[in-house]
Amino acid sequence: MPLDKLNRTLTKVNRTLATVNRTQNTVRNTTNQVKRGKQERERNQQKQQQNAPEEIPWTCKCGAQNITNFCGTCGGSPPVCPNCNIIIDTPFCPDCGTPPSTGV
Ligand SMILES: [Zn+2]
Ligand SMILES: [Zn+2]
User: Fold this and answer.
1) Is the pTM for the entire model greater than 0.85?
2) CA-to-CA distance for 35 and 82, rounded, in angstroms?
3) Ligand 1 mean position, distance from CA 72 (Å)
4) Deepest in the core among 11, 38, 60, 97, taking most CB within 10 A?
5) 56: CA distance to ligand 2 center in Å?
6) CA of residue 95 to ligand 2 center, whole Å
7) 96 CA from centroid of ligand 1 (Å)
């Protein structure tokens, strides 16, 4: 019967279509994952840039110039703004005007 054959062919076509749909979904999911991963990477990069310690040169009370968190000559701490928690090399914090605490 030709109709029977036609029906079988239709079933086969439908199965193939289902496979194609599944493949499309997989591709879409993978694309979304790739997009998400890219966004997360970009977010992480921004975070790292914000958290990166700024190498501000500061003058120790012993007179040595340092860019690290402690004086390489006497081991003293840099002047830090108690409000902003940043190293400052000026008599007052450039952000809030508070005099630095040497944090000894
Ligand atoms: Zn020092
Ligand atoms: Zn401050």
Assistant:
1) no
2) 41
3) 7
4) 60
5) 14
6) 5
7) 25
Q: Give the whole-angstrom CA distance, residue 24 versus residue 54.
A: 47
What separation in angstroms does the CA of 101 have from each of 53, 60, 64, 73?
19, 12, 18, 19
Determine the 3-state secondary structure of 36 from DSSP.
Answer: helix
Q: Ligand 1 centre from 70 Cα, in Å?
A: 8
Q: Is 99 helix (H, G, I), strand (E, B) or coil?
A: coil
pLDDT (tens digit per residue) in 17-69 = 888 888 888 888 877 777 888 777 777 666 555 554 557 788 898 999 998 88
Q: Are 104 and 77 a contacting pair, CB within 8 Å?
A: yes
**Alpha-carbon distance values, 74 to 69, 80, 98, 103 (Å):** 12, 17, 25, 14
Interval between CA 48 and ligand 1 midpoint (Å): 29
């790739």: which residue's tokens?
A: 34
DSSP output for 4-45: HHHHHHHHHHHHHHHHHHHHHHHHHHHHHHHHHHHHHHHHHH
